[in-house]
């Protein structure tokens, strides 16, 4: 009767341990990448959603009514009139892009927004530049990670 020796069993266990450790490492990296990509896609979606709302309404704004104010937190507040509405306001508060119209009626247009800014327009230009920054802190594999995404667009205001 032939049996395995102790040395053969130990070598087999060692090889099996390396294989299991490698599989665990690959799965751990895959989970981290999955979590990161999921948060990244959500941030991009939030930025595009917020930018879409801003684009659509600023495009319809009356150029002469666009007023941009600073809120002291690296954010701007934009107020403007369209042909149909007066006093539309967009601003960021507690990482949410908010739209206020009519006065006192606030709707959330996007989340995870950290910065909303409108760089100065050139004199006589009807192009308004919009910058949105989104950021999210999340935990993956027991570590805190932060992702940041920026989106910049130029909108041609159609109504002088």
Task: Report on this structure.
This protein has one helix at residues 6-59; strands at 67-70, 76-80, 88-93, 96-100, 106-111, 113-117, 127-140, 143-156. It has 160 residues and is α+β, with helices and mostly antiparallel strands. The strands form two sheets. It has a five-stranded antiparallel beta sheet with strand order 1-2-3-4-5, with helices on one face. A three-stranded antiparallel beta sheet has the order 6-7-8, with helices on one face. Strand 3 and strand 4 (96-100) form a beta hairpin. The mean pLDDT is 91.
Question: How do the strands and helices of this protein lay out in sequence?
Answer:
Layout: H1 6-59, E1 67-70, E2 76-80, E3 88-93, E4 96-100, E5 106-111, E6 113-117, E7 127-140, E8 143-156
Antiparallel strand pairs: 1-2, 2-3, 3-4, 4-5, 6-7, 7-8
């Amino acid at each position: 009767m032939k049996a395995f020796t102790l040395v053969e069993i130990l070598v087999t266990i060692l090889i099996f341990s390396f294989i299991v450790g490698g599989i665990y490492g690959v799965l751990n990296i895959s989970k981290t990448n999955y979590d990161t990509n999921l948060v990244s896609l959500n941030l991009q979606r939030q930025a595009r959603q917020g930018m879409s709302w801003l684009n659509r309404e600023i495009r319809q704004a009356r150029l002469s009514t666009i007023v941009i104010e600073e809120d002291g937190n690296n954010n701007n507040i934009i107020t403007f009139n369209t042909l149909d509405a007066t006093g539309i306001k967009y601003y960021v508060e507690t990482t949410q892009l908010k739209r206020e119209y009519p006065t006192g009626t606030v709707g959330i247009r996007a989340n995870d927004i950290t910065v909303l800014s409108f760089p100065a327009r050139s004199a006589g230009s009807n192009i308004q530049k919009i910058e949105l920054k989104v950021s999210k802190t999340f935990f993956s594999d027991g570590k805190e990670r932060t992702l940041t995404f920026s989106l910049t667009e130029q909108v041609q205001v159609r109504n002088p």
